[in-house]
Amino acid sequence: MTTRTRPMQATIFSALFLLSAIIMLALGMDAHAYYIPAAALLVEAVLLWKGASLRWFKRLLELNQLTAIILILDLWLGDLLHLPKLTISASMLAANLLLGGPLMGILAIGALASMHFSKTLPGWFQSGRA
Questions:
Q1: Of 97, 103, 104, which Cα lies nearest the Cα of 36?
Q2: pLDDT the model gives residue 18
Q3: What percentage of the chain exceeds 70 in pLDDT?
Q4: What is the pTM of this model?
Q5: Which position among 55, 56, 73, 97 has the lowest Cβ density within 10 Å, counted as fewest Cβ atoms?
Q6: Buried b or exposed e, range 118-130, using 16+ CB within 10 angstroms
Q7: Based on the structure, what is the number of domains in the chain?
Q8: Is 88 in contact with 95 (CB distance < 8 Å)?
Q9: 70 within domain boundaries
Q10: Residue 44, in any domain of the structure
């Protein structure tokens, strides 16, 4: 059995996802809805730590970013476009929290940039298949 050496980027991002999950768990003591983003952040930390399921890892990050962008655009332009602003923003906020919330959105910027511009994280996920 061959051992894989975990890259520093994977270790740092896994630790940041785990720290964010702990923060969300602490917030969940006051508002139970924060347990859901904590679970999503924990899933991301485990996927990245193990280097498993690149597709799920990227899709969770991308969907989190997409829901945040739609939420911001709706809050900004909803009245101008005569859209049902409250309905759209509530559903996008719920979807964003389901997909990791604002802390995942902040970490997703760096993680997705690293996935796109660097070969370290994609190589880490690919090394698990070999």
A1: 97
A2: 97
A3: 96
A4: 0.87
A5: 55
A6: eeebeebbeeeee
A7: 1
A8: no
A9: yes
A10: yes
Structural domain range at position 118: 8-127
pLDDT tens digits along 61-115? 999 999 999 999 988 887 787 778 888 889 999 999 999 999 999 999 999 999 9
Q: CA of 115: how far to CAs of 21, 75, 127, in Å?
A: 21, 29, 15
Report the distance separating Cα 51 and Cα 46, nearest Å: 8
Residue 29 φ then ψ, to 5°: -65, -35
Tell me the two tokens of residue 98.
């389901």
Location of structure tokens 């799920």: 56
Instruction: Kindly give the residue spans of alpha helices, DSSP state H, lying in the chain.
Output: 8-28, 35-50, 54-77, 85-98, 101-117, 120-127
Burial class (CB in 10 A: 0-12, 13-18, 19+), 67: buried
CB 114 within 8 A of CB 12: no
On whether residue 123 sits in a domain, the answer given is: yes
> Is residue 46 situated within a structural domain?
yes
